[in-house]
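Morning, I've got a small favour to ask if you have a moment. It would help a lot if you went through both lines with me. I owe you a coffee for this, so here goes:
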Amino acid sequence: LGMMGKVQNAFGRFIAEHPVILEILNVVDQNLYPDLVPRFDRDWTLMVLANAAVALVLACFMFRRREVPYGAD
């Protein structure tokens, strides 16, 4: 998206006028793919566990329906 901010179209102008969008995406990227920490501290461990919990809930929500209808198995 940083490169899109340099393009002279409507989307590029919107990104250039709202740099907070890039900052939010950087925070989300750092949360999903954190840098390797030199030691395991409480905050890093809680962030990883929270990401795992969100991923598990989303997976359960996505795959809540059975692939085989009832009675067919």
